[in-house]
Amino acid sequence: MNILRTSLLAAACVALSAPFASAITIDFDSGYTTGTLDGKPTSGTQWALTSGNTNVVNVTANIGVGGTQGIAGTGTGGGSNFVYYGFNTTSADLGATFDAASSIVNYSFEWRATAAFGSSNTQSIFAFTIGSSTTTGGSAAIRLDIRSSGRLIALDGATNRALDGLFTPGTYATISGQVNYATNTYTVFVNDVQQFTSFSAGNLAFNNASSDNAFIRIGNLGGGTADYRAWNADNIIVAIPEPSAFAALAGLGVLGLAATRRRRRA
Q1: 5 pLDDT higher than 80
Q2: For residue 154, what is the domain's CATH number?
Q3: Tens digits of per-residue pLDDT, 56-74?
């Protein structure tokens, strides 16, 4: 059994090693100076404030994984409680052409709360979305919210699915998965463990099946409210795997782990 497990892991490593050149990795280091996320990096595709009127997500030194730069969301600034920043990925960014009818998109990012969680299971503090270039999120393929209590919410069509106890304040967790535009489904892993499945199938349904792009949105939610909790994020990866890699991963049963991810680190 150990020999078989080792062989499968070795094969998975080979399958994952090279094929993900078709990816964008946002580490908030190269081209990013400290200060508001809006308008960074200094060249190429930039983050833009898509909703809200206050810059409350900032590039900050020494808060990222391994002591590098990351982004910090705070409730300060006195502006809108719902502030979104968008990154409109292009084919040049992804290294591949996105097709809303057939693409497989792997995603990964690292996230942590910076202090003890609050008590509210309804107050959202952070949102991550793929596939929405609108301020309302109406064409999202995937949307994940984290509540003040640390509860993770996955939106599955008209249903919110919730899980508690996945995060430790002050410690980065890796959130990852895959968005399948051919089947209108997605997966969610936290620290390499799949967390959600739908009631009728193995994957969650799209939040809204009309999604037509690979737009990334980060939301700083509920800033200024009594139960708001600040957060950090780092190392956003969005990848379109090459067909050969997809087939290899399917054979190994590790599609949900296809996004290149770093291990959890404090």
Answers
A1: no
A2: 2.60.120.200
A3: 899 999 999 999 999 999 8
